[in-house]
What we know:
This protein has a single domain, classed as Aminopeptidase, CATH 3.40.630.30. 27% of the residues lie in helices and 37% in strands. The longest helix is centred in the first third of the chain and has 18 residues, at 13-30. Strands 1, 2, 3, 4, 5, 6, 7 and 8 form an eight-stranded mixed beta sheet that branches. By secondary structure, it is an alpha+beta fold.
Amino acid sequence: MKLIAKKFEELTTTELYEILKARAKIFIVEQNINFQDMDDIDYDSLHCFFMENNKVIAYIRAFYEDEENGIVRLGRALTIEHQKGYGKSLMEQSLKAVKEKMECKKIIGHSQEHALSFYEQFGFRAVSKPFIEEGIVHVAIELDV
């Protein structure tokens, strides 16, 4: 699949709607997380996603946690269908896009504990003990660029 990587102002209304719909499906409906998904960080994010039949099927966003020190945070990672390789392809292509489009020295994020091995295959390492975020066990992860 070919990655689409756009800043907020470059997104079409359809792309934005489909991103928000996919995030609601996974985080609010499937994972039963009660939170405000539209948090204004989207305005300053690089949105990386795959579309199929005009639907977002995999997504992640990247934004500066600390622009001065080149620290980029990944978040809102999702795939609509599992075990099809979308997640791996999305991460490979998104990391490349982030490195090309954002000046960064380190990429950070939070991984659900059960998904840590997924991130480790891309060079991320756990840098915290497990903690609860939105009722789900996570660990902080980092990747030096």
